[in-house]
Amino acid sequence: MSRRIIRRVHTLAGLFIAPLILVATLSGFFYALAPTIESWVYDAELTATSTSPAQPVAKQIEAAKRIHPDLDVAKVQVPDETGKTTRVLFSDPSLPSASYTRAVFVDPGDLHVTGELVQYGSAAALPFRSWLSEGHRNLWLDEPGRIYSETAATWLGPMAVTGVAMWWIMRKQKNQRKPKKKSRREAMKRHTLIGLVAAPGLIFLCVSGLTWSHFAGDNIATVREQLNWMTPKPNTTIGGEPSADGDSGHGDHAGHAGHAGHGDHGGSAHTDADAAPVNTANADTVLQVGRNEGLTGTLQLEPPSKAGQAWTVSEPRQAYKMYNDAITVDGDTGAVVDRLPFKSWPIAAQLTSWIIQLHMGTLFGLVSQIALALLALGIGALVVYGYIMWWRRRGGKNTGNRVDLSSLTWMHWLTLAVLLGGYSVVAPLFAVSGAILFVLAWALDFRAGNKRDSKPRISADLDGEKQEPVSVESH
Asked: Where are the beta strands (DSSP E) in 268-330?
């Protein structure tokens, strides 16, 4: 195997995978800022204008039910601050999945309805953010489009790692002369600097982004299930043993529903044979119990789906809220049936929840959004400078310096094989695209070798000036 093949694979990945990364970066930039933009777009629905004290939650639910008397109440999201509307969420079989609900916005003071929108997932995404999510996830092409985003995500980490490794190898062999303007070395210097700063972010986006993907997402969900890293659920059975239905096996990844809500289960449609009508008068009781139990911020009330079940009161994902506790309450008596503090979750489930919110730009509010937007700009700059480097090197005018891989021991190769093999099992699209690039790199290397054997070759330095061949090769 030629020592230049690995370098060629890195270069070819930059040429052919980078366009996918650039598209994902562009859509990701706007998606990162979507929560703030969404609050402006839907200000009329989200803002309560009445100055009257809040009416009972039961009355707010009844006001919303006048809009959809034929639909079942799935959840109610009650704010803890004035100036915000209450969201009454209805299950609607006509929507694409249970992750979608019809949200009716009610002013708590005078009970007038400020609007109605379709809401998606546990992040409470409204249509604008859901639309951006679909574009970022699959370019609005449904399942076929997910191949693009998964391929891009699988290469973010490897490109970051190999880029940093190349910098590490070359750090003591850099040309100390100031690079000429518009030279390849100037572009490489900027590419390297941005890459070193952005590398942790690239690896984070790779790991977190794969949880939404199709093939790798399924594998990650299977691993989580086998290791009992799934998000737990509180017991809702009144006077009985904890519910056996637990997590669906996909947890936050159910159905790989995408960035907008990361696959929340929506709400019950109350289609069971033993379903019981929801007594909305109990909403105020369970809300008060939730507040007394120390739940803070906006609270989400989920009515029982059938007789003998308790209400669930939980803290949905909110900015700057690291812990999302939940309890279940007997609506008739106000007795607490079960408590599920966030700290009791498996540590992997806690980390998954935080990673999801960081990737979506919701964990630390505007701070997260700005950080992700800057990271997106940095990735875009990396791609652009990468192409500038390639363009200024075209035609064989600049071969760069060469890395001698003969110094690598069998242990190095074994470690590399294990890491790449394990990653390829988790991310099969990386294996497929990597194999294609490897074969292409081998073919180009073979062709270049034949040309070198047929005539003498003079290399060039980083600025295109002729010099004797050197022994260390860069990307």
From this structure: 299-302, 311-314, 326-329
As separate numbers, helices (DSSP H) first and strands (DSSP E) second, the chain gives 14, 10
Q: Which of 51-55, 264-268, 303-307 has the lowest mean pLDDT?
A: 264-268
Residues 6+ apart with CB under 8 A from 9: 434, 437, 438, 441
Q: What are phi and psi of 471, to 5 degrees?
A: -105, -5
Q: Which SS3 state, helix, strand or coil, does residue 319 take?
A: coil
C-alpha span between 328 and 366 (Å, rounded): 32
Q: Who's near 418: CB < 8 A, 6+ residues apart?
A: none
What are the pLDDT digits (tens) for 184-209?
888 888 998 999 999 999 999 999 98
Q: pTM for the complete prediction?
A: 0.81
Q: What CA–CA distance (Å, rounded) separates 361 from 116?
A: 25
Q: How far apart are CA 118 and CA 95, in angstroms?
A: 9
- Count other Cβ atoms within 10 Å, centred on residue 411: 8
Residue 267: what pLDDT?
39
- Percent helix, percent strand, percent coil in the chain, to nearest 5: 50, 10, 35
What is the amino acid identity at position 184? R
Separation between Cα atoms, residue 205 and residue 371, nearest integer Å: 12
Distance CA 266, CA 256 (A): 14
